[in-house]
Specification:
By secondary structure, the protein is an all-alpha fold. The chain is globular. It has one domain. Helix content is 72%, strand content 0%.
Length: 101
């Protein structure tokens, strides 16, 4: 059963507990940037292969961080919407220096 969160803030606290390893954070960072890049290419070209590639690269890199470094289940398996938003919040926090790579 999926855990219910009363707010995004509550989810984000648990999300950050699942992202302690620096390599996992690096892979999320790279995956989010590349996923966004390939999504922009999709928007410009309307070639759906780029959309598929955006998801494969974005989530593939992020999930590999969990499977190989964190040894836990990706939060996107439990709450894909909040997890997608949390990826961008973590990216912002990494860029702002609030989190270490």
């Amino acid at each position: 059963m999926t855990k219910q969160y009363s707010s995004f803030s509550e989810f984000y606290q648990e999300y950050m507990q699942a992202h302690q390893h620096p390599m996992c954070r690096r892979l999320h960072f790279i995956g989010t940037i590349l996923g966004a890049f390939f999504f922009v290419i999709f928007i410009l070209s309307w070639n759906f292969a780029w959309l598929v590639f955006a998801f494969i690269v974005g989530y593939g890199l992020a999930w590999s961080g969990h499977f190989f470094f964190e040894k836990n289940e990706p939060m996107s398996f439990r709450n894909p919407f909040y997890s997608f938003i949390a990826d961008w919040v973590m990216l912002k926090d990494l860029c702002a220096g609030k989190l270490k790579f």
